[in-house]
Amino acid sequence: MNAVVRLMLRDARVLNRGLVALQLILPLFFLFVASFPLTSLIAPFQVGGQAISYQRFLATGLIAQTTMTGSLIGGTLLFTDRRHGMFGQILVGPATRADYATSKMLSSAAIGLSGAVVVAAFGLPFTYGVHPTLPGAALALGAVLAGAFFFAGLSVILASVFRSLEAFEGTFNLLLILLTFVSSSLYPLSAVPSGLRGLMLLNPLTYDVDLLRMGILGFGSPYAPWEALALSVECVLVFVGAVAALRRTARLEAA
Amino acid sequence: MLAVETRSLSRSFGAVDAVTEVTIQVEEGEVFGFLGPNGAGKTTTIRMLTTALPPSSGEARVLGMDVRTDGSRLRPQIGVVQQGESCEFSSTVEDAMDIYGMLWDVPRREREERARELLETFQLEAHREKRVNELSLGLRRRLQVAREFIHPMRLLFLDEPTVGLDPMARRGTLEMIKGRAREGMTVFLTTQNLDEAERLCDRVAVINHGRIVTADTPAGLKRRFGGLRAVKVSVESGDRGVLAARMREVAGVSGVEEEPTGEVVAWTSDPKRAFDEIIELEGQAGLRFATVTVREPSLEQAFINLIEREETGS
Question: Which residue from B54, B87, B102 is facing A84, i.e. has the nearest CB?
Answer without folding.
Answer: B87
